[in-house]
């Protein structure tokens, strides 16, 4: 049996000994935090005064509050560290798990500080360099018709980093759509007004994202890190050059680790071609993969062709023209920041299993990888339905709501539709086959004709069965409607809620108190949990 895509993540959480050769630290152990902190004190190479000045300048431009500035100041200390998390700069912060990452990082920084008796601060790495506009340009929500809906910013930005997409009228149109698709509440006008103001203050979509994140967590001292900030790119020159110089080692070690993982029956999360240098280069504002073959570096469109010395000079002269891909972004992150732990999702922690040996090429070490908290928000109305129909955690995780609905419908099926029609089809089929055998004695051509006729008749019976089921469900409309609401709210698009919905429809309903309540609820647990939250009292009985 082949291990699933996230089997390594499951083992990482609950059977760490199976995968420990691919990671440096067990996230469950306090000693991991102590050892990692000690490692950083002896090995972190960045000038702390310089990095904190850059962070201070950037966060002040975003109008951060005093708590964030105080946390930045703490990083000047030689024993201070950071818990880092990150995500693409999704519209209005993207899916809920972005918020959960930030909260996990904030709480884990406090925990790490207690364990190590040193200052540890939370940092959010905004993946502004990402150029997949279609992935970040929309949010999903339940609209005023109680249906799943998607609103998005339109635009054709192929190859353009999110940090290079300017704010325009389409961003404000999206906010207007959010207004139209959500109910009026006591908090709505305030929240919508703030979204407008934050958009007006931002130059690009990534900055809008950053300003919103700071607004949501302004009391928690979260620090924003944008790798596209020119001063940050300048700090990356050294690691970019090392990447270019170590292409052969990168390819060899990545291949070796991939083979080891596959031999253990784990699927690879990232599988880049051997000609990929793991850097991007910007040409006329477009982000291109930098490829390598026979000691020559080039882009697929051949707009750039250069040897190693020419690429090294370009990095020196134009550091803002380069950025790492998914393989080396974590390594660049740990080159720049004193990362005690990185908070990631299932995919991120899984693909880090391929990277451990790459860190050693650059005299670095993989940090603690800590899973973001995973929850489903269950409002009171939905909680009532779940209790009524005995819906449990496993039913949500395993997406069993359809099966639960069928069982509930079966309880109300006095006719026992499936069994009744099944008996009729079996009985009729048996009698009809006997008839076919008899008439075939007259002419063998009647055998085929009879069997085809039987298939059509059974098809008509099954059509009547389907219609009977439909009318039965229609007579159980309240039941079906309540299950549909559970499915739409708890398993939208057959996925976990945290991967689909955005935070702002919830904030419009409950105000920013929801953020504080989530912070209070999180306990850095590795299990998916239900967060039962107050909700409306809509009656569907």
UniProtKB/TrEMBL annotation:
InterPro entries recorded: Bacillithiol_biosynth_BshC, CC_BshC, Rossmann-like_BshC
Assigned EC number: 6.-.-.-
Keywords carried by this UniProt record: Coiled coil, Ligase
Name of the top EC class for this enzyme: ligase
Molecular function in Gene Ontology: ligase activity
Coiled-coil blocks: 41-75, 240-267, 398-452
Keyword Coiled coil in record: yes
HAMAP family: BshC
Summary of the function given for this chain in its UniProt record: Involved in bacillithiol (BSH) biosynthesis. May catalyze the last step of the pathway, the addition of cysteine to glucosamine malate (GlcN-Mal) to generate BSH.
Family, similarity comment: Belongs to the BshC family.
Protein name: Putative cysteine ligase BshC
Organism per entry: Selenihalanaerobacter shriftii
